[in-house]
C-alpha cells in the first residue's frame, strides 16, 4: 500500500497532468479525483489521454478528500482556503492555485481583489533554504508557472549581486494550456494557431509573486500567448552590477549544481520549450548582451510540468520524505 | 545491474524516443548509442530533450554494440542485415526498420528495390500467437507505424469474417516525425504548419506489410502528412460480410480484451492522436456507416510510441522475459 | 457607386471572410453587416484582421438589409428561410448555410431534423449547366465546404462513367474554422494543436448533399478535424468501371478546362491545403491505385474560400453579371 | 501595358510573396522571375500557391533583368551590389536584403563580415521625411522584418522625447518563414511545432539597423523562433523620460495619423500577428507598465508582408509615382 493522495479540481489541465503523474508514481495511490460540473463522469471521458485509468470524478467536498494523506488542490482562485479549513489537520496540502503564495496581503488585494487568505510555505525547492522548509511543511503553495520560469532564471543573479533588481524586464511566452480549459472564443484553435498575442500588458497578476520569489524590486513583465499547447519560454534581462560583471552562466551553474531538475545548458546551447515537454525540468542559459551590456537569461519549462503539476509532485515528494525526483521525469517528450 | 541494451542509429527521431524509454526503464541499462555523422557528439546536443543523459554517440560498428544483451536497430533501410550478421549470435536484435518485415521477397523488391534480406519474427504482439513467438525469438522485426495503426484496426474484423478483405480502403494521416529527421524542404516548419499533404498516393511501400499483417487482399492506402510532430490517425473501411454484420466494436473489444496497450473506447468516444502522445497505447473505435454499410474503424497511435520505439521496447520486454508493460506508459501526455 | 451588398450573420468565420472579400472587391459596396449578440460592436473588434474597416455590426433584421441589391446569408441552420421571406423580392440572395441545398426533403429531415425549407439554385458553378443557372437565379444556395472538395473531385469521373457511383469512400480532413466560432471545449487550441480527431463517423449530415451534387449512390464519408485554422484535404476513392479505365487525371483536366478556379495539377504534383489559403482555388490530382485498382482523387481547398465565402462571391459575380473571377484570388497565401 | 517589373531571387519565401503581390497588382507586369538552382523550373512547381501563374524561373543574370523598369532583389546577403552594378542605370531597384541598409560601414563589418557595399535610401516610408526620399530615389534598401516591427513601435516615442533611447529592451518572436527556405534540421516541422526557441541571443545582426532606424542608443534585442509560418510580434520597452510621461498611445496615434498601413489600435485592444497575415499592415498598442513605469509598445506585422515583400511593393509604388497602397491589402487573412 502506497501513500494515499487525492486531487481536488482534477478536471482541468493541471489536474489531468497531476493524475497522469500520480498514476505513474511508484509510491502514491490515487484515492480520489474530484470535480465540479464533471463530477460523476469517468476520468477518461474528460481526459482521454488517461484511458485505462478506471476512476470516476467525485464531488469536490471535504468528505471525499479527508481520507487522503495528501491532497493536491487545483481549484479556481479563492476556493482553496475554505476547503483547506474543512479538512483534518493531518492531511497535507499542496495548492497549485495562487491563493496562498503571496506574503504581502496588499499586493494580493491589488491584483486579485478580495481579502488575502494568508501565505503558506512557498513551493519552489530550488530557492535557498526552501527545500528544507517544504520538507517540514504541511501546507505548501506551489509556485505559479510564470514565476517558476522567471525566478529560476533571475534569483541567483540578484542574490549574487551581479544583476540590478530595480529594472528587470521579462517577456514570457506560454502555451495555451496555461490559460486553462474553460471555453473562451480567443482560446479557440482557429484563433491561436498561427498567432502570437500579448495579454494583460502592463499589469499582470503574477508580478508580485515574481518579485517576492526572485528579489526583483522593479519588474516589467509581458506575457504572450503562443501557438502550442504547452511550454513557457521566458526571456529575462537585467542591468549588470559593477564594471566587471561575473559570467552569468557560471553563477547559475553554481546555484543549481545540486538541483536535479534545473539544467544550465552547455555554453552555446539555448533552451527551447519542446525539450521540456512532459518533464519536470527547467533549462537555462545566459549571456551578456553585446550592445546594451544587460544580462540575458532564457529559461524553458513545461508550464504543466515544472510550472504546475510536476512542481507540485516534487513538493509532495519532499513533504512525504521521498526522494525529490520520485515519479518525475527529467527528460522531455520530443519531437 | 540491469540488462545491457544498445541503440544503433540513435540520432534520429525513433532513436531518440528509444533512448528516452530506455532511460526511464527500470530493468534496462543503456550501454551504447551509436550514430553516423553525429558520432562523437553528446547525445543531449542532438536530442536536447535528453539533457541530463550523460552519454556520447559511438560509431555504428559491431565492436561498439557486441557487448550488449539486446540491440535496437534504428537504421536506414538496407543496413540492418549486414550489421546483424556481424554481431554475436547471442545478442538479441529488435529492428525498427523495414528490412526484415516482409515474408514475400518479390513484394520487397517491387517496393524497395534490391534483394530481400529475409524475414524475422514479426513484432506485433497483439496478433494471434505473436506474443509467444516474439518471446522465444532472438531476431524481431518491429511493425511499421502505418502497419500498426491499420492492422490493429483491421485484422480482427477480417479474422472474424465480418469484413471483406478484398476492398479495404485506408486513409492515414501522420505527424511529421514519421518522415524522419533529414532536412528536406517540404518538411520545413514553414511548409508543414497549416498544411495537409498526401504523398506516395496509389503506391506506398507499406502496402505489402499491411496486407501481410492484416490479411487484407485488396488495399487502397493513402498516407497524408499532417501539421503536428507526432501521431497517426488511420481511418480504415471495409465492406461488411453477410446481411447481418456483427457489431464491429464488439469484435475488436473481444480481440483485445487482454492486450494492455490496445484500448477499444467506450461507445460514442472516438480516438484522437493527442491522447496517445508519448504512450505505447493504441485507441480504437468502430461503427457501421449508415449510408454505405461499410465498417469503419478509426485507430490512433503515437507513431514514435506504439508505431516505433514503444513497440520495440514492448517486443524487447517479451524477448527478455519481462512483463510486457515494463517501462512503457499507457497514458498519453496531453494537452 | 458600386453594387450594394450586405452580409447577414457576419460575426462568424465565413462572415468575416466575406467582409474581407467584399472590402477588396472592385464592384461591390458593403452597406451593412449584421450580427446577433455582437450587434453594436465595431466590426474590427470582432474581426481584428479587418482593422481599418470602419463599420459597426447592425442587427440581423429585414430593415437593415432590405436596401441592398444582394444579401449574403451566413446564418445558423434554419434561419435563412424566415429572413429571406421578409426581404423584398428584388433583393438577390446567396445563402452560405445548408437550408436550401437539398432537393430531397426527406434527406433533410433525416440529417437535420425539422421540415425542409425548399431548394434554391445550387451554387457550384463548375457543375455542368450550373454556371448558367446561377447567372439567372435570384436565390442561390452556395455549396457546403466538404461538398465542394468532394464533388469537384468526383463528379466528372461519375459523369464520364469511369468510376462506379455505388461504393465511394471519402476521408476529408478540415481545419478548425470549419467547426465555427462558438466556444466549445473540444475546439480549444490546447485540444486541437497536435491532434487529429474524427467526428460524426458513419453518419455526417453532408452525405446527402455530396450524393446529390456528385451523383454518388453509395458513400462512406469520414470527416477529420485537423490542427490548422483553414483548409480541406479530401481523399476520394471509387472503384473503376470496365477493364481499361480511363486515366482519371485526363477526365478531370477536360472537365475543368474552362474553370478559372479549378486546377488539375501537372502529373506528379499533389494538392496540399496551404497552397490554397485565402484563395478561391481548388487543386486536384488523380491516379489509379496500384494494388486495389481504385481511382484516387485528392482535392484541396480553403474551406472559408472556395468552401464558403469565395464560392459565395463567385456565385454573386455570376448573378450580378460580373466576370466570375472579379475580386477573387486564384493564388494562395503561403507559406 | 503596365510597368515592367522583375524579381531576382524569386524562389525563396520573400520572393514568392513578391510574385503573389505583383500578380495581383493592377499596374505592374511581371516580366521575369529569376533563381539559382531552380532556374528552368516552373514557378508553380516551387511555389504551389501560385498555381495558375504560367512562368518559368530564369537565371539570375543581368541580361534577364535589364529590360525591366524596376527590379526587386531578394538575394542572399552580399549579392546585391554586384548585380546592381551590372544593370542599366535607368532600372529602379528595391533591395529586400541587408546589403545596403546600414550607413555605418563599421557596424556592417562587425555583424556581417566583409566590406560594406554602401547605403541606399532606407525603405521605411513611415519615418519622417522618408516617404518623399523614397519617391525620388532609384535605389532603395527595404527595411528588415525585425527592424520594421521594432522601429515603427519605438521611433515616435524617441523622437517625441517621451522614452529614453539608452536602455531599450526588445523581445521579438517571428514565424519560421523569417529563417528562410534552406533546409536546416532545426527548422524542420517536427522541431518547430510546439516549440519556442531563442537564437543569436546577445548579438543579433539586426541591432545596428534597428538603432539607426529608431534612434535607440542602447538596445537589448532577443529574437525568438515561434511555431507559425508567418508573423512577428515585438514587445518593445523603454524607460520613460520625465515625471509625467505622455500617454505613449497618443504619441503613436499622432505619428501615424496619415500612414495607411500603420494602425494604432483602440485602447484595450492589443496587436496579434494573425490579424496581419498576408497584409501590409502593422498593428500597434502601447501602455505604461504599472510596476516598473517602463513604456511598453507591442507591434505585429506579417514578416513577409510589411516585413519584406509588402514593404518592398509599397516602396516601389512610391518610386513609380503610384498611390502608396496600390495592390496591397490593409486587411489580413484570418482566422
TrEMBL record, chains A, B, C, D:
Keywords: Amino-acid biosynthesis, Arginine biosynthesis, Cytoplasm, NADP, Oxidoreductase. Residues 4-135 form the Semialdehyde dehydrogenase NAD-binding domain. Its EC number is 1.2.1.38. Pathway: Amino-acid biosynthesis; L-arginine biosynthesis; N(2)-acetyl-L-ornithine from L-glutamate: step 3/4. SMART domains: Semialdhyde_dh. SUPFAM superfamilies: Glyceraldehyde-3-phosphate dehydrogenase-like, C-terminal domain, NAD(P)-binding Rossmann-fold domains. Belongs to the NAGSA dehydrogenase family. Type 1 subfamily. HAMAP family: ArgC_type1. This is N-acetyl-gamma-glutamyl-phosphate reductase.
Amino acid at each position: 500500500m502506497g501513500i494515499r493522495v487525492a486531487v481536488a479540481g482534477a478536471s482541468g489541465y493541471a489536474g489531468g497532468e497531476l493524475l497522469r503523474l500520480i498514476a505513474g508514481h511508484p509510491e502514491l495511490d490515487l484515492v480520489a479525483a474530484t470535480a465540479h460540473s464533471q463530477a460523476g463522469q469517468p476520468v477518461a471521458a474528460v481526459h482521454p489521454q488517461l484511458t485505462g485509468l478506471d476512476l470516476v470524478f467525485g464531488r469536490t467536498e471535504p468528505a471525499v478528500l479527508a481520507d487522503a494523506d495528501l491532497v493536491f488542490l487545483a481549484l479556481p482562485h479563492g476556493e482553496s482556503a475554505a476547503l483547506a479549513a474543512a479538512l483534518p489537520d493531518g492531511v497535507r496540502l499542496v495548492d497549485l492555485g495562487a491563493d496562498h503564495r503571496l506574503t504581502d496581503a496588499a499586493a494580493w488585494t491589488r491584483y486579485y481583489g478580495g481579502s488575502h487568505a494568508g501565505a503558506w510555505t512557498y513551493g519552489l525547492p530550488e530557492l535557498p533554504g526552501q527545500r528544507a522548509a517544504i520538507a517540514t511543511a504541511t501546507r505548501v503553495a506551489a509556485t505559479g508557472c510564470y514565476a517558476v520560469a522567471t525566478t529560476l532564471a533571475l534569483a541567483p543573479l540578484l542574490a549574487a549581486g551581479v544583476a540590478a533588481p530595480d529594472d528587470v524586464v521579462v517577456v514570457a511566452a506560454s502555451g495555451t494550456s496555461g490559460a486553462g480549459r474553460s471555453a473562451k472564443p480567443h482560446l479557440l484553435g482557429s484563433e491561436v494557431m498561427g498567432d502570437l498575442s500579448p495579454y494583460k500588458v502592463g499589469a499582470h497578476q503574477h508580478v508580485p509573486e515574481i518579485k517576492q520569489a526572485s528579489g526583483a524590486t522593479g519588474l516589467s513583465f509581458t506575457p504572450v500567448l503562443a501557438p502550442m499547447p504547452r511550454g513557457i519560454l521566458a526571456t529575462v534581462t537585467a542591468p549588470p552590477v559593477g564594471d566587471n560583471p561575473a559570467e552569468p552562466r557560471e553563477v547559475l551553474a553554481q546555484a543549481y549544481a545540486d538541483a536535479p531538475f534545473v539544467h544550465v545548458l552547455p555554453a552555446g546551447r539555448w533552451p527551447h520549450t519542446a525539450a521540456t515537454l512532459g518533464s519536470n525540468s527547467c533549462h537555462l542559459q545566459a549571456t551578456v548582451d553585446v550592445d546594451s551590456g544587460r544580462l540575458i537569461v532564457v529559461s524553458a519549462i513545461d508550464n504543466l510540468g515544472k510550472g504546475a503539476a510536476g512542481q507540485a509532485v516534487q513538493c509532495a515528494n519532499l513533504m512525504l520524505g521521498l526522494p525529490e525526483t520520485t515519479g518525475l521525469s527529467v527528460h522531455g517528450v520530443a519531437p
